[in-house]
Amino acid sequence: MPRLSNIEKVNSNSFESADNRSLTSEVPQIHKEENGVPFFDGKFSIRTANQLVLRQEAYKLLYDVYSKVGIAQDRSTDLWLSIFDALPETTTLVAQDHKGEIQGAITLVFDSPIGLPADELYNEEIDELRNTGREIIELISFGVKETARGSIKILAILFYSAYLLSWRKKKATDFVVTVDAHHEKFYCRAIKFKKIGAVRNYAKVNGNPTVLLNLPLKLPDILRNKVRVFPRPMLNYSEREELDIAEKIQDMHRPMSDEEFYTFFIEKTDVWEKATSAQKEYLKNISDGRETDHFSISRALAKGISRKLQDNEAVYQNPEAKTIKGQTILDKIAKSQ
User: Fold this and answer.
1) Cα–Cα distance measured from residue 262 to residue 267, given in angstroms and rounded to the nearest whole number
2) Are residues 240 and 197 in the same domain?
C-alpha cells in the first residue's frame, strides 16, 4: 500500500475567496509576476507552472511533443495531463527562453495513497522500493519543443531542477521513470538510472514498449567528483547554491485553484470522468485548510451534475461577463444539486 507523502498546506492568502471568483475567467490575471531561476547566463530559466496560463502552455507543449512521435492519440483535446496532476503536491516545471516562451516541461508526482502513474504497470517493482522505506517521486510528462534552440541545455536544467527540488528540499530518496525502451541506454549511461522493470506495453503512451528505471537520489552526490553524471558537468553549482535553487523553485509552487481544476479536468478534458473510484474518493477528501478547498467542484461533480454545467461554456467566450447571473461556479453547483 503506498504511503502518504507529506502534503503541504496551502497558504490561504495566496488564493482569492471562491465567493469572489467567477467561472468566466479562463485566463485569470497572474497575481504576482515571478522571475524564474536563471541558467546559462540568463538564456534560459526554470519556474513552476503555478497559474492557469502556464499550466495550459505546458500541457499543450507536451501534447504537441507526444503527438508528433505517435504517443498522444486522443484528438478530443490538445492537452497532455493525468489525474495525478490534480494532486496538491504535484509540480510541473517549465523551461523558458530569454523571451519568456516555454520550451520544455517536466512533472514530478509524489507518492500518495493513490500511488504513482507507473503503478499501473509496475506496482510490484515500486512496492519493493516502498517496503524498504524509500520516499519516491515519479518523473512524468518530460518533453522539449521540437524547434527549441539549445535542447540539450533545456533538458539539462529541467532534470537538474527536478533533482534539486526532490533531493535538496523534499528529501525524497528515489526517482522512478517509465521511458521508451529505446531510450533506456541514455538514461542508464548518462544519468546512472538502473532498470528495475522489464519491457511492457504501456497503454498511456499508445501501447509503446516501456521500461521502469530507478535512480537513488544520493548517487549523483556520491559520484560527484568521480564520474561525469548528466547534467552536473554542465551545471556545476555548490551544495549551498543548489539548496538556494531548490528553495526558490519550491516557493513558486502552488496547487490548482478551483477554476484551474474545472478548466483542465472537466471543461477541457475527460480526465476526471475516466479517473478510478479510488482516485476520485481520495481527491474528494483532500482538504488544504481553506474554507472552500480546491476540490469542492469535484465533490459536486461526482454527484452526477456535470452535464448541468455545460451551458456555462458560453460564458468563457464573453470576456466582459463577470458572473453567471450573479453566481460563482460554486453557487451554480450548489443550486444544481
Assistant:
1) 6
2) yes
Residues 61 and 151 in one domain: yes
Q: Are residues 182 and 203 in the same domain?
A: yes
Could you read off the pLDDT of 100-152 as tens digits, one per residue?
999 999 999 999 999 999 999 999 999 999 999 999 999 999 999 999 999 99
- Identify which of 157, 32, 162 has the alpha carbon closest to the alpha carbon of residue 97: 157
Confidence of residue 32 (pLDDT cuts 50, 70, 90): very low
The answer to whether residues 201 and 229 belong to one domain is: yes
**2 in a structural domain:** no
Range with lowest mean pLDDT among 15-19, 46-50, 98-102, 156-160: 15-19
CATH number for the domain harbouring residue 125: 3.40.630.30
Within a domain: residue 1? no
Which DSSP string corresponds to 51-102? Answer: SHHHHHHHHHHHHHHHHHTT----TT-S----GGGGSTT-EEEEEEETTS-E
Please, which pLDDT band fits residue 288 given cuts at 50, 70 and 90?
A: very low
Q: Do both 79 and 191 map to the same domain?
A: yes
Residue-range definition of the domain harbouring residue 46: 27-252
Q: Is the predicted pLDDT of residue 306 greater than 90, yes or no?
A: no
CA dihedral of 292, 295, 301, 306, whole degrees rounded to 10: 100
Which long-range CB contacts under 8 A does 15-21 form with residues at least 24 apart?
15/257, 15/290, 15/294, 17/291, 17/292, 18/258, 18/291, 18/292, 18/296, 18/328, 18/329, 18/330, 19/292, 19/328, 19/330, 20/328, 21/257, 21/258, 21/259, 21/328, 21/329
Site of grid cell 523553485? 249
Q: Is the peptide bond before 231 cis (omega within 30 degrees of 0)?
A: yes
The residues, any chain, with a CB within 8 Å of residue 120's CB and separated by 6 or more, are 202, 203, 204
Closest CA to 264 of 22, 16, 85, 74: 85
